[in-house]
Write a structure and sequence with these properties.
- With 255 residues, the protein is mainly α.
- Helices cover 68% and strands 2% of the residues.
- It has a two-stranded antiparallel sheet.
- A hairpin with an 8-residue loop joins strand 1 and strand 2.
- The protein is elongated, with a radius of gyration of 44 Å.
Amino acid sequence: MAAAVLSSPSLPLRSSFLGSKLSNRGSSNRSSSCVLLPFRKNTRCAVDMPHEGFTAKFPRVNVWNPYKLLGISTYASEEEVWSARNFLLSQYAGHERSSESIEAAFEKLLMASFKNRKKTKINLKTRLKKQIDESPPWVKNLLSFIEVPPPVIIMRRLFLFAFMACWSIMNSAEAGPAFQVALSLAACIYFINDKNKSLGRASIIGFGGLVVGWICGSLLVPIIPSFLLQPTWTLELITSLVVFVFLFLTCTFLK
């Protein structure tokens, strides 16, 4: 009985010791899963922190004005807009909403710039047309004989007459440019006839361009400074170069 009495008080002591040991072990396990974050007043578990908490968020996400959102002035150039956009995207690349707001503001400015350019072109055409309508009758009649062909046709004919001019310069020491001028006149008549379907009118316009070009060349040659001309260039060669220019303008822009 004495042994039983002596052994009975040790049972609650042993159970209380085991309970405190288990509670200490549980508290140690819970403390290992939590980390004290710096600059925080409360202790939070690292697994409870969302991933977006570590990414920078753009502070002007809800700004409606695209200039203020990108941090540029209203008079900023296109290069400044591109540089601001690239800089902000590099700073806030990890935040999806920030990147979307930056791209949206950039697209607004890009579309506004495109519309302004289009309006400028339309205004220039409108102003030019208005000036033509307000010009005197003789100017309207003169402009009625002029048309602008597609750029491809202009470049092809420009190449042809430039080739004739270079050929005349390279062959100036052996013979005059009469052959090249004759070929250029034939080409001019062919182009005008192809456009108007009238060989007689094409011939008159072609010969008229030749005569006007020769007269203008003869008058312009004495005015040109001598240091701009080569010593081997003759008066006939320089005049023929002016003729090539007039034949090109005649067959390209006249109706």
